[in-house]
Write a structure and sequence with these properties.
This is SDR family oxidoreductase. By secondary structure, this protein is an alpha/beta fold. It folds into 2 domains: about 140 residues, NAD(P)-binding Rossmann-like Domain (Rossmann fold), CATH 3.40.50.720; about 110 residues, UDP-galactose 4-epimerase, domain 1. The chain contains 13 helices and 9 strands.
Length: about 280
């Protein structure tokens, strides 16, 4: 059985490849589909098949997916372009005879009001219409979204946002990668709502304070003010608006879940807030 993983040199894709190998997949039965071959040298050194392809160049996808039995389509990172990009991969997968396709979506994509959800839902619909047996991995927020803010928070004494006291069932990329590997190896169709140990931003700030020994608070801002802060940090206006609005949606429970799908798939509790913070601080 050959398993292909798109975006295999990305933060999540590389971890999925590692999880597949740790769960018993032979490296030479894994196809790492990448845009930049140079970045995949480490994967090739492990015996993983490395093939070049680009979501924006459909003519490259057929060769990259040739002979693949199962495929993980990791969603692209270009908001606004993802539906045609993903559709190109799905069509190439069908033409190549892929027998099982998994896709990294967003939590409750079919009901979510988050601005990122429509592209994911549209992709899910294309997959459902393709005729390929499939699994949808509806990943919640990534803990690393917050870990990337630790340096600023420790320097300024605060996390900023518009999340209020909403709860965020975030999980680490490694947890989501293990779940993806488990689904790929089992080939079990379904829709999986994935999330970890829920916390508020105030609880995150308190945990960082406890472990770092530096006082950090959570500073809640109106959406417009938080958007302006993001723009001031260098984000494009449109993307800053999307992120600020998403942060506000946390107050409405959009990034929380009581589903135990993640723990069932990985066979253990999701990484705790304390452990995730400890790992991030060491990094």
């Amino acid at each position: 059985m050959t398993i292909a993983v798109t975006g295999a040199t990305g933060h999540l894709g590389r971890l999925v490849v590692e999880a597949l190998i740790s769960r018993g997949a032979a490296p030479n039965e894994i196809v790492a589909v990448v845009r930049d071959l140079a970045k995949a040298a480490g994967l090739a050194a492990q015996g993983v098949q490395v093939r070049q392809a680009d979501y924006d160049r459909p003519e490259t996808l057929g060769t990259a997916l040739a002979g693949a039995d199962r495929l993980l389509l990791i969603s692209g990172n270009e908001v606004g372009k993802r539906v045609p990009q993903h559709t190109a991969v799905i069509e190439a997968a069908r033409a190549a005879g892929v027998r099982f396709l998994a896709y990294t979506s967003i939590l409750r994509a079919d009901t979510s009001t988050i601005g990122l959800a429509p592209e994911h839902l549209a992709t899910e619909q294309v997959i459902a219409a393709s005729g390929i047996p499939y699994a949808v991995l509806r990943n919640g927020w990534y803990f690393e979204n917050y870990a990337g803010q630790f340096g600023t928070a420790l320097a300024t004494g605060a996390f900023a946002g518009s999340a209020g006291d909403g709860r965020i069932a975030a999980a680490t990329r490694a947890d989501y990668a293990e779940a993806a590997a488990a689904v790929l190896l089992a080939g079990d169709p379904g829709v999986y709502e994935l999330g970890g140990e829920a916390f508020t931003m105030a609880e995150l700030a308190a945990e960082v304070t406890r472990q770092a020994g530096i006082a950090v608070e959570y500073r809640d801002l109106p959406v417009a003010e938080y958007q302006a802060l993001l723009v001031g940090a260098g984000l494009p206006e449109g993307y800053a608006a999307l992120l600020a609005e998403t942060d506000f949606k946390i107050t409405q429970g959009e990034l929380d879940t009581d589903s135990d799908d993640l723990t069932r798939l990985i066979g253990r509790p999701a990484t705790s807030l304390a452990d995730a913070v400890a790992t991030a601080l060491k990094a």
